[in-house]
Every structure is written in structure tokens, then in C-alpha cells.
What does this fold into?
Amino acid sequence: MTVEELTEVTSDVVAAFERLVPQLSRSSPAPSAAELSEMVASPATTVLVARDDVGHILGTLTLVLFRIPTGLRAWIEDVVVDDAARGAGVGSALTRAAIARAAAAGARSLDLTSRPSREQANRLYRRLGFHLRETNVLRLDMGS
It folds into this structure.
């Protein structure tokens, strides 16, 4: 297995996201080729993919880096590993790669959220050094 930054959106990438996103969220549609291209082109986002030995995408993670008045921050979003590849270290490899990239960029911290029902993912994040914060995550739905 290899983890790499997505630099080009091909038909296999679009198909992989069409397969993976429903495994992450039943209410969010998979991104289109144009939306994936926008993500790949953005200097704020790094889309990481894990591939097996023949190049099939097993999982993905998006790392977001942004500067705010208190420093460079990093956030992990939309981690998803194909059901068929779970338990094989894909999530760990993706997360470790994101940690390394955030550290190399000079981020002060790296945050993520994970639903409590995702017990296996939460155990992984704790093993990798993440800890629960005393904070509230608030959301305003913008109607889209």
C-alpha cells in the first residue's frame, strides 16, 4: 500500500470517490470531477489517497491547512476507508501521512472530529496521539 497526494483527477479517482463517499455519509453526494479538481488545485487542501499494489484506491483523507491570527492550523476531514480494506492499516497510513505533512508545514495543531459511533476510528486516532478537547463544535446549516 502507498499513500500519495492526489495531483490529477482521472476517471478512476472519480469512481473511487463515488464508491467511498456513500460509505462515509449517506446524505452527501460524491464530488463531481470538477469539484475534485477544485480540491486538488486549492493550496489549502491536500487530498491523500491510499492505493493497493495494483493502484486501486482503498481510502482517502483531506488535509486542510489555513493561517489564522494565532498561527497555522491543520484539520483532517472526510477520512474514509473502503469497507473491504478496513482493518488493514489504511486509515493509520493516511492519518500518519497527514500528521507528517501538517508538521512539515509548521502547523501548531492538527484537529479532526469523529462521531462517537465510529469506535474503531476513534481508537485509531487516540493511538496516534489525538485526544479529546474540552470544546463545543457548533454548526449552522446553510441550507445547501
Summary: The chain has one domain: 2-127. Helices lie at 11-24, 33-41, 90-105, 119-127. The two ends are 36 Å apart (CA to CA).
